[in-house]
Specification:
Chain lengths: 380, 254
């Protein structure tokens, strides 16, 4: 057990698991303890954890990961339509398909690095997005989006003699996956995704990824073929994205191409940077914070704002409503952009760096007698 | 009895950068187990020569042969896997990783080859590699700094660590590009002692060095490079006595 996982890793994993499973309780006072939002916390947490394996560990910034997310969604819905409404085959199918898709795109994009790599991923993702609306409409059902109907063949369900009445919904062993069941289903996958990411980061392979990020030239002169390492990281993160996309299809079995748009790719970049690039929990926290504020701010409208500012004299209230309305509702991306700029300028390591700084300040004030070890920076 | 046993042969290599003839008709033979020093003024083409050997640059013409294998056209990682390691003029290290990890990585390259997808194994279970790396760090006198971030080391320590990164691979051929530049006198002497120790283990070395004290205390053979050409080569005494060398290089320096 000691070589399987260090004590610190074990504590981190257990702590993470408890925090996730107890979310319906501790998020209730924040008005976020309801299943629909909790499911999104899990799904985008998985997306961000996987993205961090490529961006945070290996240093390759992809602007096209929403493509794998979208492919995962489509693959899952097709599994529901053709095979069975059970969620597990859909998950497996989605992860395999998005992994294959990532293998092809990664193989092509990784011929370049730096900004050229980023541009290539963006180009491929936008191509996928446009194809989903045009040539691929037989697979994606275009703008309407791919959805479940009673007429779907569902060969496995049919073979088992199962019949449905009403709108078909995804299930797990016959149980419907709505509400809290859906949340715990997604939570299980987030915990598993976190565990695997933790193992990868703590493995020799993970160290190689960090070394590639740090100095790719040195890696090559040290005897490593860096291409398959980067490609593995790309495929793994693509599979994470596909898993997240599939889970979104489980909780909401209507797959549309907007999930593949570049704004969705950009969002996972923001989540990762906001939380802390290269850290394990940072990206998850970034995803939670963004989804939380998106949920609150995008629901606000002028009426609510007018009530909020009503304590001011009339002219001032109108003025404040006009100003603040630009930052909420559809304008919430403005708030997100602003918050992002502030974080990158003042806290480039993201929220996790903030946490570290606060912890360090506490430690310093707690043990003022401790000798400052001259310029000895501990690693990581 | 001295029987020549050439392990590295740089054969008729030319390298042009546009109009600049950085290497002209270089023919260099390095014997197994020997330390071959390359000296010459700045801009003579010394680093370029090492770049051609390790596959960072392709020669304009000519080829490099290592122990019967043609290196020219191979990738840097393949050349390393054949047993050639290099210390760079400006240290190439993993600045964001700990000193210990910097040294473990090349050891894993040696053990596992150029790619291995061992991602479910814990790094903590690599006790053998870890012990090897710690032993290596003891050899170069850096064991107390093993948990430090490599990027926060002093210049001299970065060099020593890079040397450890090369030595842990037990390369058959070690290329050193000014390994003592930026080191204090004391650190330079420690490094010389270390390099002498490796020599007794039979490792072949090519060393570029400005410090004549280092060159004459280590080298079995010296080649003098000036403006991309080898203007003299031979034993340290022959080179020291060569008037062309005096004029081109040593005269100015000492
Ligand atoms: N990649 C390159 N592109 C163009 N010119 C180069 C390159 N590398 C080296 N040179 C030039 O080749 C000459 C030899 O450089 P170098 O081998 O670094 O000399 P040194 O003997 O000091 O190590 C210099 O004039 C240098 O500017
Ligand atoms: Mg040089």
């Amino acid at each position: 057990m000691t070589t399987f996982m260090s004590r610190n890793d074990l504590f981190l994993f257990l702590g993470f698991t408890v925090v996730v499973l107890a979310m319906p309780i501790w998020l209730a006072p924040f008005g976020a303890g309801y299943p629909d939002l909790l499911q999104r916390f899990m799904i985008f947490g998985i997306f961000a954890v996987g993205f961090n394996i490529l961006f945070g560990l290996t240093g390759y910034l992809s602007f096209g990961h929403a493509a794998f997310f979208g492919v995962g969604s489509y693959a899952a819905v097709w599994s529901f339509k053709l095979l069975t409404l059970d969620a597990i085959p859909a998950m497996i199918f989605a992860v395999v398909i998005s992994g294959l898709f990532a293998l092809v795109i990664g193989f092509l994009c990784l011929r370049r690095s730096g900004i050229y790599f980023s541009i290539l991923t963006l180009a491929f993702a936008q191509m996928s997005y446009n194809l989903a609306y045009s040539v691929l409409t037989p697979i994606t059902n275009g703008e309407t989006g791919l959805q479940l109907t009673l007429a779907d063949s569902r060969v496995l369900d049919a073979a088992m003699g199962q019949t449905f009445s009403g709108q078909p919904v995804p299930t797990l062993l016959g149980q419907q996956l709505g509400g809290y069941a859906g949340f715990y289903f997604c939570a299980g996958f987030l915990i598993l995704a976190f565990f695997i990411a933790q193992r990868i980061a703590g493995s020799p392979f993970g160290m190689m990824l960090k070394a590639i990020k740090s100095n790719q030239t040195r890696m090559q002169f040290t005897g490593f073929n860096t291409r398959p390492y980067a490609l593995s990281a790309f495929v793994i993160s693509g599979m994470y994205a596909g898993l997240a996309g599939a889970l979104l299809a489980v909780t909401d079995p209507l797959a549309g191409a907007e999930r593949m748009q570049w704004t969705a790719s950009g969002e996972v970049v923001l989540m990762t940077i906001l939380g802390g690039v290269g850290t394990l929990v940072g990206p998850v926290i970034g995803a939670w914070i963004i989804k939380y504020f998106e949920n609150i701010l995008s629901a606000l409208n002028d009426n609510i704002l007018a009530r909020f500012w009503s304590f001011l004299p009339e002219g001032a209230a109108d003025f404040m409503v006009t100003i603040t309305s630009k930052f909420v509702g559809d304008g919430w991306h403005l708030t997100l952009g602003l918050a992002f700029v502030i974080v990158v300028i003042f806290l480039p390591g993201g929220i996790m760096e903030g946490v570290r700084r606060i912890a360090a300040a506490f430690r310093r004030s707690g043990s003022s007698s401790a000798k400052p070890s001259a310029r000895t920076q501990p690693a990581e | 009895m001295e029987k020549s046993n050439v392990v590295l042969h740089v054969a008729d290599v030319h390298k042009r950068f546009g109009g600049l003839h950085a290497l002209a008709d270089i023919d260099l033979q390095v014997e197994e187990g020997k330390t071959h020093a390359i000296i010459g003024p700045n801009g003579a083409g010394k680093s370029t020569l090492l770049n051609v050997i390790i596959g960072k640059l392709a020669p304009t013409s000519g080829q490099v042969v290592f122990d019967g294998t043609v290196l020219t056209g191979r990738k840097p990682y393949q050349i390393n896997q054949l047993g050639i390691a290099r210390v760079f003029q400006t240290p190439e290290i993993f600045a964001d990783l700990s000193v210990l990890h910097n040294v473990m990585i090349p050891a894993l390259a040696k053990r596992d080859g150029m790619f291995k997808l061992n991602m479910l194994r814990s790094l903590d279970s690599e006790t053998g590699i870890r012990a090897e790396a710690e032993h290596m760090l003891e050899d170069v006198g850096m064991i107390t700094r093993r948990e430090m971030l490599a990027g926060s080391l002093s210049r001299g320590d970065k060099r020593r660590m890079e040397l450890a990164m090369c030595l842990i691979q037990h390369p058959r051929l070690l290329l050193l590009d000014e390994p003592t530049a930026g080191m204090s006198r004391h650190d330079t002497n420690t490094t010389i002692e270390l390099l002498k120790k490796i020599k007794s283990r039979g490792m072949t070395k090519v060393i570029i060095e400005h410090d004549m004290h280092v060159v004459f205390s280590l080298a079995d053979k010296i080649s003098v490079l000036a403006q991309g050409r080898i203007i003299a080569d031979g034993s340290p005494d022959e080179v020291r006595g060569n008037p062309k060398v005096q004029e081109a290089y040593l005269g100015g320096a000492h």
